[in-house]
């Protein structure tokens, strides 16, 4: 079967021929439909994040997949089920986090991430997975199921942010999403139901397809070149919830100033080292005197995937049509890795249901 | 009646003669037993925190009180009830936070704080309070009831920290209290039941009475001059819970490095402005990749006071004997405001039950 992988020493993905995997006990065999591409894939390709599986000279890419079960192999699944795989897998030996269904909370060294770190991903015509790591999708989501994994990332971040505010009555009205990449836009769409006023940060000029989507979602576009994050409270309003998806380290700290009293910032970016000055006294004081919180969030588990299935199913067609700027077959898979200002979200298509 | 107050323009407290207050509808009249002194009192005296009541040339000090109801005035209380007052009061006009019993979550301008900001405190022979802001104490706590308010601060911080970890299974084992002042020591004692291993940060040499208490509580004393907060994970162990009670702004950021994966830091200090360098990229990344959280916490509400009553009642005698280094009558009240290395916790005594 064909797979899209990065070989050691190379910095572009290529197609490899690999044997079709055989499911072992507890695993099902899945025929891949589509696999999305995101910033993490670009980092894996560039070698700045993740790592090859032990003893392998390549890593198969892809962690945002949707497929169809072709061999349930004695698991509770049925042939024809549309499924989305979660990303983290047990390394050698189990651990408590996997045992209780919370691999997203496992610390470094206690997991592999398929397509990212230590395990092959889903960008191949077939893949196997333990059934416990496959989440059911309605058949209608066969085409857009590759959005479930990124949506699950947001579901977890929202869950943890809300949990942090659960000790008191919190009725948030305003939310500010930092980043107009595909995850930021997806999050703005997902937050529409639960917030009265939405804002989304970018640094692009109009006309721009991401700003068009922000407008269409009735969110306010905030240009960080005109209104930095730490000035948004004065320029617009203090934000009950901030969702950081830029990976720009100063945003993690400016978030504290953007928040309304009792607000919470969910941080999702993974920046490199960067030393800079902050008014640490003012930030510390502001966190305390206004009961603010910051929660870091990475990865997601089956519970978040299940919620994400519902969230993706509820997205309006105009939105997903605008968000997904390209779905490419194996004959032109390279285009799925384009990363210019007209590209928002892409996927590689391996087959149809 | 006699009251201990700071007059505008003065920087030491003095005794004033004031009329005994008359309870209005909904208020009870309370005869004061004891009122504790803490760092906030010293800040109010120095003029660096809080403010005078409108139109007054002085502020009566004291926000850590215990007293006996002498005139229930038609409220549900009974004469002889031992009570502890909460600190925040409605300013002119009500607001939602007070209406739902969460004045601790009100933003600036939406509350007065008795003895601190905009309202007279409890350091007088009698005080009045709306009954809804008086928390019952068992009579046995008549002498130590002044510890309930500081304990309630810790109850709230713990509640918010635990809430932030409630979206997953969190079984914390190690806790690190930053600060060996009276609040830090009280917190170490309160955490003994729920953590296997406790650490407490200070910067003093042995022999020292606070270090003796830390030893006696089976906690590990961490000297910040030898082991800075950001090195405690390597020197001892990563901490599931960090409680910051130093008001030293760098600690808010170093807490992120001290935390174990999935850990939470509760911040309680209120530092002044202070600009310094941080490796913001590393801190941001660490928050995200290890699902860490920071929660700021200020003040406390009736729910936290009620829990604090139980916590204070459970403190061993040896601990409260060592913690409370002095209780002084009005004839020597100045000694309650001493702030040297042999002083841990003091109170002014206005009367006995």
TrEMBL record, chains A, B:
UniProt feature, compositional bias: Basic and acidic residues: 7-23
UniProtKB keywords: Carbohydrate metabolism, Metal-binding, NAD, NADP, Nucleotide-binding, Oxidoreductase, Zinc
Name of the top EC class for this enzyme: oxidoreductase
Family under the similarity heading: Belongs to the zinc-containing alcohol dehydrogenase family. Glucose 1-dehydrogenase subfamily.
Source species: Halobaculum halobium
Domain Alcohol dehydrogenase-like N-terminal: 25-138
Chemical reaction(s) catalysed: D-glucose + NAD(+) = D-glucono-1,5-lactone + NADH + H(+); D-glucose + NADP(+) = D-glucono-1,5-lactone + NADPH + H(+)
Enzyme Commission number(s) from the entry: 1.1.1.47
Stated name of the protein: Glucose 1-dehydrogenase
One record GO biological process: non-phosphorylated glucose catabolic process
Domain (Glucose dehydrogenase C-terminal) ranges: 142-350
Binding site for NADP(+): 180-183, 203-204, 268-270, 297-299
InterPro entries: ADH-like_N, Glc_1-DH_arc, Glu_dehyd_C, GroES-like_sf, NAD(P)-bd_dom_sf
Gene encoding the protein: gdh
Key word Metal-binding present: yes
